[in-house]
Amino acid sequence: MRYAMVFAAVWLTSSLALAQAPAAPPAAAAAEGPTEVVQTAAQGMLSALDKDRDAYRKDPAKVADLVNQYLLPHFDTDFSARLVLGQYWRNATPEQRRRFVDAFYHSLLNNYGSALSAFTADRLKIYPSKVDTDATRATVRTEVKRDNGDRVSVNYYLRKTPEGWKAWDVVIDGISYVNSYREDFAPQIESQGIDAVIKRLDAGEKPEAIGKQTK
Questions:
Q1: Contacts of 171 (CB under 8 A, 6+ apart)
Q2: Which of 22, 86, 115, 213 could pair covalently with 5 via S-S, beta carbons 3.0-4.6 A apart?
Q3: What residues have CB less than 8 Å from 160, skipping those under 6 apart?
Q4: What are the pLDDT digits (tens) for 83-141?
Q5: Is 162 exposed, middle or buried (0-12, 13-18, 19+ CB in 10 A)?
Q6: 3 state SS for 120-155
Q7: What is the dihedral of CA 8, 12, 13, 14, to 10 degrees?
Q8: C-alpha distances in Å from residue 44, one per residue of 12, 47, 195
Q9: Are 156 and 139 in contact (CB under 8 A)?
Q10: What are the tens digits of pLDDT across the range 83-95?
């Protein structure tokens, strides 16, 4: 699962470990810039993995708990879900919106949890980002080394929220996570409705563009 491995490895670094000491308190976390969020997250996630890495490798499903704790709270799931649905968000009922966001969240959790067990710090390089103090959007560039030695450039797109910087899209090798879902789901929504897409997410299916990368 090449794409899943790359996505999980680099995206875990953009999650800030708020749930445990010695994580930064909420006020400090909200004050951190995008690059600092990335760096702090890497330390928090790797520390958690290193405490019992053998156990996580034997049972990768356990990593989902770490993803839920360290990663997903700092991915702007609601905003990304709205972008994935695009024009269809406006026509969805409140119940469909809630179900879609929930399914989208669990899709992230299930698809990328197991890939994290093999992640080590030497695979990752984080480039500093220059962001104006009044900026509300930012891009953080990283580079990840695959098993075969190839280096993959990755762009994170973040926006400033009241809770601090959160990522809403990741572009890996020119493939946008949000765009891949949107382009793949749009025809099915048009022909079968949003409920059909929710079932796909619940089943753990990936968009076609992402699926090809995982083979």
A1: 154, 155, 157, 177
A2: 115
A3: 135, 136, 137, 138
A4: 999 999 999 999 999 999 999 888 877 666 555 655 666 677 888 888 888 999 999 88
A5: exposed
A6: CHHHEEECCCCCCCCCCEEEEEEEEECCCCCEEEEE
A7: 110
A8: 9, 5, 37
A9: yes
A10: 999 999 999 999 9
Indicate left, alpha or beta for 174 from its phi (over 0: left) and psi (-120 to 50: alpha): left
Tokens matching residue 1: 């699962």
39 residue type, one letter: Q
b/e per residue 173-189 (b: at least 16 CB within 10 A) = eebbbbebbbebbbeeb
Token pair for 139: 């891009």
- Helix axis angle, 194-202 to 94-113, nearest 10°: 30
The length of the chain is 215
In this predicted model, which residue has the larger pLDDT, 34 or 89?
89
Looking up tokens 């708990």 gives 65
Per-residue pLDDT of 157-209, as tens digits, reads 999 999 888 889 888 888 888 998 899 899 999 999 999 999 988 887 766 54
**For residues 191 and 9, which has the higher predicted lDDT (pLDDT)?**
191
